[in-house]
Predict the structure.
Amino acid sequence: MPIVWLIILVLAIGSVGFVLGRQKALSTAGGDSRNLHSLPVYYGSNVFMKSIVPAFLVMLLWLIVQPLVVQNQVSGMIPASEIAEGSNIGLVMSEVRRTAEGLDNAVASGAMDEDMARNARAELTDITQRLRDAGQVVTSQITQTVLAASQQYRISMARGATWMAIVVALVGLAGAVWGYAQAHKGFRARNIVEQGVMAILVAAASIAILTTIGIVFSLIFNTFEFFRLYPASEFFFLLEWAPSFSGRGGASSLGILPLLWGTLYISLVALLVAVPIGLFAAIYLSEYASPAVRSFAKPMLEVLAGIPTIVYGLFALLTVGPLLMNVFGPDSVGWMQGQRSVLTAGLVMGIMLIPFVSSLSDDIINAVPQAMRDGSYGLGATRSETIKQVVLPAALPGIVGAVLLAASRAIGETMIVVLGAGAAARLSLNPFEAMTTVTAKIVSQLTGDSDFASPEALVAFALGMSLFIITLGLNVFALYIVRKYREQYE
């Protein structure tokens, strides 16, 4: 049963339990809700919660544990002779999972029937071609061992999904029966429901923390695997980025410094555009603009935040790039040799970041108490002096947060860089040359024709981990500066 239908089934069981539990509670009170300890809705909510919460917890736990159990079982089918030198069982199992996913896609698209997908004696060449017809990336001939393991993986996962549907439905029914049995007039339903809601709120608040921990651990494990295959000293200190994909021969040079320089350089250009314009726009809208102008200008400015980044990339490629070529190209001063450059991507990215800076800064400046402005005016200060010496210092912590948000957005941008800055990894101070960033190379390394078990693919996780550490350091530094300034200001 698909997960969506299973969720609908559990919700249906809970909804029916809600109605029945509420009716039973009222019947035990003689139809008068005043004889109940709690309102009737709490008795129905108690049945609903006891039905869906345990069922969804079992479903979540099952979805987490089942792949681990199946992988452990299937990995025993792979002999040590099938594990290539420099590889490990985890990388082979990644190939097994991708092949199993490809078989599912091929069956779903009609490129392969179920009998062929399950037939362990099927021709490997035919299987490989049908997987390619289904849109699955297959870089090499699938071995018989990997095919057999993939078929067993599919069967075990399908069997586990069936048992999961049965168990989750039974748990939902059991919870509904339990809650229904508690529905009588003396039961403290309100207390139980409020405790349950509190537990749900705590769990929801923990999701962000757990998600961050999960992201970090997923990056760490794959980063360690990359450094097992590629020297860490070359990754951090090599001044060249020249990956050699499978089938092209040669050794890869995977130095992060050219990518890191391109990321910081383009982000710096973008911030030099976005921060002054955005901050000045926020000061004008909050301190000088009339209500009529503000009601029109602020929504129009915030429209920029809703434009997809691919549109900004096309704008950089088709408009800003040719415009800069006309000004700085070979036909004029000769500084710029192509449309893609750091300046092209930085200018467009800065335009994209203007609403992030202006909107947040405007809200923060408006949050400064009017009494501070009135006190400044009472001491004889002009409007500009009040803004410089009172309003901006009071709003500075929030403005720093807005700039930090814009910087994080700039560091993580991809499409504008791909279309506006090019794909050249180089160390240069010339803003008219093409460069690339860490995020652009993460995409290219994971979508190229490289085997996922190779350093050329695993380097994407090392790049992501490095970028995560850099942004975390920037956040900590910004918090330190804001805290120090607050102590001086207070």
In short: The chain is about 75% helix and 0% strand. The mean pLDDT is 81. The longest strand covers residues 241-242. The two ends are 61 Å apart (CA to CA).
